[in-house]
Amino acid sequence: MQITDVRVRKVTKEGKMKAVVSITFDDVFVVHDIKVIEGDKGLFIAMPSRRAGDGEYRDIAHPINSETREQIQKTILEYYEKALEEKQEQEE
């Protein structure tokens, strides 16, 4: 499985949510609304989720193993950093 496209749709410096991202796998499957979040230990991703009847949030789509999650997170955070740099260059 290859990540073939990453689109950073929103970039902000304010608040804990820093960006909303869509990621495409093998040019045939896309996952929207992955969030880039600023946590106590740095940036991380949150997969798209929905509130269940009990009030808890549950992921709609997510990686099955930690290696895949790490690959997805690493790629998304690289694209986020690039988008942040491009936004800063445009503001100058």
TrEMBL record:
Keyword terms: Cell cycle, Cell division, Septation
SUPFAM superfamilies: SpoVG-like
Superkingdom classification of source: Bacteria
Pfam hit, one: SpoVG
GO biological process: division septum assembly; sporulation resulting in formation of a cellular spore
InterPro entries: SpoVG, SpoVG_sf
UniProt key word Cell membrane: no
Function: Could be involved in septation.
NCBIfam families for the chain: PRK13259.1
Family to which this protein belongs: Belongs to the SpoVG family.
Protein name per the record: Putative septation protein SpoVG
Organism: Velocimicrobium porci
